[in-house]
Predict the 3D structure of the following.
Amino acid sequence: MYAADQLPLLQNELELLADLVPLPGLRLIELGCGNARLARQLLQRFPACHVTGLEVDAIQHARNLAQPQAGLDFLSAGAQDIPFPAASFDLALMLKSLHHVPLPLLPQALSEVARVLKPGGHLYVSEPIYDGALNELVRLFNDEGVVRAAAQAALDQALATTGQWEAVTERRFAQAVSYRDFDEFEQRMMRPSFAQHDLSDAVITRVRAAFEPHMGPQGARFVRPMHVRLLRRTGH
């Protein structure tokens, strides 16, 4: 296990991505793009790139379409059925999204990503490590231990059996996460548009009681441990 306080603190994950993959001029696809925050930053720094963001959450997809940006387009689709021809992209990003793919569809999703990547293209997967104070809070209402482990196992299986991938490198780091108060935590973490958690009054009360000791003058601050795996698409 990698404790959050033992990992290097990374302020902006774009710095790590840019260190691992030469980004200028690439055509990228982000699977489960959410609000596409990193993609938007990437395009500001590397305007010759193009990013296509796929999102299955209709509410978030509508928000994304309402905030256009040069070099960025959005489609409503999942990783298990990517609406592009083979070898369309240089780099695929999955930022805290692989574990949201339905478990039976994980092998299909990784095969689809391999299909749309050019030979020699990269898959950058960034997943939360199941550890730390924030994780202990979240698991009170949304225990992701099983799905996060399944996501890592699916990567291992794809590397070992499909012939589509080779491992390039791995990195572990910590991300700073903060919330002004419990209301912001509840809105962002307990009531996201892409999920419906079972939030009884008793659950909310229990989570609030666990959250409040983390509050300080500047809100509640946490450190989230992260695990990045970079894979390369085989072929020439």
Summary: The domain at 4-175+227-233 is CATH 3.40.50.150 (Rossmann fold). The chain has one domain: 4-175+227-233.
